[in-house]
Design a protein that fits this description.
Length: 305
């Protein structure tokens, strides 16, 4: 991949930086990470994420200093404003795993800092609204999100407001869950994960990324992502889809091959299309690109110059 404007690190070079990083992982921390997803390679955590978190720490220190200097100069009362990290990439590339891993690492290593996480799924229009707008088959595309609400949320968080409610999306029910919310309450660091976070919607004057202090794009070849999409589908087919409340319950009732054929069609007609048209074009807006190969192994890291 030709990534102009970025420093490019092969994994071997990047991992050397972790030698300088004095962030030893305790057994408890490792167990916590394994509990998150038992297929996560602890090698990746040590070699890739430790230098990443160290770099992030430097950026955070810079952010804190600038905020303090700004407030001192302007002589305005101190109001806590969070450092916001955006994480983007295709459906099924591993964004939420990366986001949760970062949250665990940041919470462990910087225990005096409060790190919270949201996913932009919560800002999808509910199915009833998508249906009204004839967008049910466009779930995940830019027009299926309530971007105004997402931007309002981000400006409230940045403004230091506490106790902000974020709607919850259920992958099980395949819809926004009425009356269920996550509460974001003046974190020091907020991670915002979603396929749309680096997009520039045509009809908004402010973009989601205007609120980011740091952003990451998780990248891999589309053929591999399809494989991960189908693997995740297979796991869900054996577990969650057996629940009659699952949107995909009908898939668990049909022959396995037929269910996989349908999943392949969803990938090709919806998620791959979305990746090619709307997600991949935002890759070079990120501060860091994490590139993955087979088995989710991180082989290269790009850092904006
Ligand atoms: N580092 C990793 N190691 C092993 N499996 C992973 C890793 N990251 C993601 N996965 C798996 O890949 C699939 C997609 O990951 P997920 O985080 O759900 O993606 P996204 O949030 O981008 O849709 C899941 O089955 C997840 O368990
Ligand atoms: C809700 C989503 C748009 C969000 O994707 P995510 O951020 O979880 O990767 C996606 O999971 C989705 O439902 N896409 C529509 C097509 C499909 O069922 O995969």
């Amino acid at each position: 991949m030709e990534a102009q404007g970025y420093f490019e690190f092969e994994r071997e070079e990047w991992q050397k930086l972790s030698k300088k990083a004095e962030l030893p992982l305790t057994k408890t921390q490792l167990a916590g990470i394994k509990a998150l997803n038992d297929r996560i390679s602890l090698g990746d955590v040590q070699d890739v994420y430790v230098p990443l978190v160290r770099l992030l720490q430097k950026k955070y220190a810079d952010f804190e200093k600038w905020n303090q200097d700004k407030l001192d100069f302007l002589q305005v009362p101190v109001k806590k404003t969070p450092f916001i990290i955006g994480i983007s990439g295709s459906v099924a590339v591993g964004k939420s795993t990366t986001a949760r891993l970062l949250q665990v690492l940041l919470s462990n290593w910087f225990s005096d800092l409060k790190t919270q996480l949201i996913t932009t799924d919560g800002f999808l229009f509910p199915n009833a609204e998508l249906e009204k707008r004839n967008l049910l088959s466009r779930k995940g595309f830019p027009e299926s999100y309530n971007m105004k609400a997402l931007i309002k949320f981000l400006s409230e968080v940045k403004g230091g407001q506490g106790q902000i409610k974020v709607p919850q999306y259920s992958h099980q029910v395949y819809d926004i869950v009425a009356d269920q919310f996550d509460v974001i309450d003046q974190p020091d660091i907020l991670i915002v994960e979603g396929i749309n976070v680096l997009q520039l919607p045509a009809n908004e004057s402010i973009y989601v990324s205007d609120f980011f202090d740091w952003s990451i794009y998780v990248d891999a070849d589309a053929e591999l992502i399809e494989k991960w999409f189908l693997e995740r589908f297979g796991v869900l087919l054996d577990t969650a889809f057996h629940d009659p409340t699952s949107y995909y319950y009908k898939y668990a009732q049909m022959p396995r091959e037929e269910a996989f054929q349908l999943a392949h069609t969803i990938w090709r007609d919806v998620d791959l299309k979305n990746l090619e048209e709307f997600i991949l074009p935002t890759r070079f807006r990120a501060d860091v690109i994490l590139h993955k190969v087979q088995h989710h192994v991180m082989d290269r890291v790009y850092v904006r110059r």
